[in-house]
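The records we work with from here on pair a chain with its fold. A complete example follows; check for yourself that the lines match position by position.
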Amino acid sequence: MQDGNKVENNRLISNAIWVIYFVGFDDSDMEPFVGFERIETSSSDAHQRQQDAQLAALLRGGQVLAVVDEDDREKAQALAAAFEREILRTR
């Protein structure tokens, strides 16, 4: 294992996931937003990965909208933009 990645069947498997989250408060001057961030997880267990995503969103003051199990920034960014359009009605 090197840099949080492992090799399996000659394929590099990342322990990174992307978490898409929403931050918004009713009584706040802060503008609501949809964010996405790559986080390292220490497990390949789906439940533990979901817990890691929940914790990451909570630490940023947000709520998880989705988890991208692949280490794919473009996919995470597209999903975050779709959530942003739906939730914030921005076009």
In short: DSSP finds two helices and five strands in the chain. The helical segments are 46-59, 73-88. The mean pLDDT is 83. Residues 85 and 91 are 6 Å apart (CA to CA).
